[in-house]
Specification:
With about 170 residues, the chain is mainly beta. The protein is about 0% helix and about 55% strand.
Length: about 170
């Protein structure tokens, strides 16, 4: 369910997020509760025919429309950012400059490892930040006063194996 703004499949195979300007200026589609460790992948396009704001966000540690963390690209600033929203303030905790083109397709990967967060774009690590606390809440997709399109969304947890094998007996038992 969309908690603010709108979100819909736009008929072209993309999930499009758009804010409602009379509501909170953010659109968030929560995708579920986040474990302490996960990898979230999505294909993102910031369309040139959107609003006058051009960015897209992967949302994590979502508690409320004014209390969450984000990672994403700001095309108008040519910056990839990791940050948080606390009340009405949007704070960029980490950022890096890189060209971000409108109408281009970007493969995003957000990795959460307890409080450490890394955003990779097209297979290249762009920006990271350590929030120095465990992250919970929901994960989702978002935009602040912008229209953004997402596709191929996956959320994965690392696999841990509850066994060990030392091969001392000369065979692989698992």
């Amino acid at each position: 369910a969309v908690v603010s703004g709108s979100g819909e499949v736009n008929g072209q195979g993309w999930y499009e997020v758009a804010p409602l300007f009379n509501d909170a200026p953010i659109s968030v589609i929560p995708l579920g509760e986040a474990p302490a460790q996960l990898a979230m992948n999505a294909t993102m396009t910031i369309p040139s025919d959107g609003t006058d704001f051009y960015h897209g966000l992967l949302i994590f540690d979502y508690q409320a429309v004014d209390d969450f963390k984000f990672a994403g690209g700001w095309a108008e600033k040519n910056e990839w950012r990791i940050g948080h929203v606390d009340g009405t303030k949007w704070v960029a905790d980490a950022r890096t400059e890189s060209d971000i083109d409108l109408d281009a397709v970007y493969e995003l990967e957000l990795v959460l490892d307890d409080g450490k967060v890394t955003l990779s774009v097209d297979g290249q690590e762009m920006v990271g930040h350590d929030f120095s606390q465990s992250l919970g809440g929901s994960v989702g997709l978002g935009a602040k006063r912008a229209v953004v399109q997402f596709d191929n969304i996956t959320i994965e947890q690392p696999i841990t194996y509850p066994f060990s094998e030392d091969f001392d007996d000369g065979t692989a038992d698992h």
